[in-house]
């Protein structure tokens, strides 16, 4: 199998209450239940949003009181290396927000609602929030004249079209680029987002500077990977430990290599399925 077949075939999220998570992702985004290995969901479940797949697996209680350190201390903040969000493309931000607001148990990350980023930062409108388990998510609406072809003219029952990318915070952007190129990704756009909009969107106060790099599989299928390198405030190196509900895993297929569990230089989890 050629490396050109590389793709992110799914993203694994650890959930404390699997039925609650399945219900939330259906109500908030319109995710469709694909299936589960067992009726009691012991080994998790697969759901889809458009053409993209999420694998929801049950959390295993660890640590004092049956809770992991992150479960006690809260989820990683945007500029911590344990941070990893999923970006959901929406056709209409107002409709997406209304649908989300009808759902329970989510919390905002963005401090002032959806933010339209400056043209120099891409001009998209975005809103970040957390699901009931604290996983970071983002609504992303592209400017009308800059909608990528893959997200144009899609038929969807609601405003949520699919998962555009998974973004990870890294301590050294160039080091992360080298690592993921070694896995077969190719570097796409690179830009520096600066300003109050970035700070408010990321829940980091009234100002932030962040280097953003797109890493795409050769086939250019969604989702792709995005690197976030914070300049101000600086990136905080706090990786997610094993057993954490925030131990999100990228699932790769088409690698042409044997199945393997990997960690990138910042501790983000990857599973090569084939």
TrEMBL record:
Coiled coil: none annotated. PROSITE patterns: VOC. It comes from the Bacteria. It holds the Pfam family Glyoxalase. InterPro entries: Glyas_Bleomycin-R_OHBP_Dase, Glyas_Fos-R_dOase_dom, MMCE/EMCE_epimerase, VOC_core. Gene3D superfamilies: 2,3-Dihydroxybiphenyl 1,2-Dioxygenase, domain 1 (3.10.180.10). Keywords: Metal-binding. GO terms for molecular function: metal ion binding; methylmalonyl-CoA epimerase activity. SUPFAM superfamilies: Glyoxalase/Bleomycin resistance protein/Dihydroxybiphenyl dioxygenase. GO terms for biological process: L-methylmalonyl-CoA metabolic process. Residues 7-142 form the VOC domain. Transmembrane segments: none annotated. PANTHER family: METHYLMALONYL-COA EPIMERASE, METHYLMALONYL-COA EPIMERASE, MITOCHONDRIAL. This is Glyoxalase.
